[in-house]
Amino acid sequence: MKLPGIFMRVLACLLFLMLLPNLQAAAAPKCSPTPQDEIGPFYRPNAPIRSAIGKGYILQGVVRDASTCRPVPGARIEFWQAGPGGVYDDSLRAIIFSDPKGRYRLETSFPPPYARRPPHIHILVDMRGYAGLITQHYPKSGRKRALMDLVMGREI
Ligand SMILES: [Fe+2]
User: Fold this and answer.
1) What is the pLDDT of residues 130-150, one digit of tens each?
2) What is the CATH number of the domain that holds 118?
3) How many structural domains is the chain composed of?
């Protein structure tokens, strides 16, 4: 009576193959982590906690966990950007903490291009249990607002 043994093995293999995509999906991030970008030479720590550093451009979104896509409340988000003439100064730095739903909202001015770089806003996100995220937002010409979720991977 070898048939039942073989049958059970084939059945087990079929079950495994059927479940494999689900197992892989569970291990893979649900939300793509936000790509890292250069920090650049103008980062300064200890920016003031404030949600506005200018007028005319709104950057907002949700801080999310890459493995679950869930919002991450209480994340510390630092912003800094150049002002007119491409000069970085302390008036264009801010820290915002994501709210209980993981949301953040920065009111600022449209950053100028400088040194052959396109307009950009530097962003650094820090949260216990997560790998630090350093990235940049690139506003599109003519836009007055943008949505940008900040997706963080867990600390290994
Ligand atoms: Fe920059």
Assistant:
1) 999 999 999 999 999 999 999
2) 2.60.130.10
3) 2
Q: What is the DSSP letter of 29?
A: -
Reported pTM: 0.82
Whether 12 and 84 map to the same domain: the answer is no
State whether 9 and 70 are in the same domain. Answer: no
Based on the domain organization, do 72 and 131 belong to the same domain? yes
Closest by CA to 56, choosing from 119, 118, 145, is: 145
Structure tokens at 87: 């000069």
147 C-alpha to ligand 1 centroid (Å): 20
Q: Residue 23 is which amino acid?
A: L
Distance 120 CA to ligand 1 centre (A): 6
Q: What is the pLDDT of residue 5?
A: 72
Q: How many CB atoms lie within 10 A of CB 23?
A: 10
pLDDT in tens, 96-113: 999 999 999 999 999 999
Mind listing the pLDDT tens digit for each residue in 38-83?
A: 999 999 999 999 999 999 999 999 999 999 999 999 999 999 999 9
Q: Residue 96 sits in which domain range?
A: 57-152
Contact 138/125 with Cβ under 8 angstroms? no
Q: How far is the CA of 67 from the centre of ligand 1 (A)?
A: 29
Q: How far is the CA of 29 from the centre of ligand 1 (A)?
A: 29
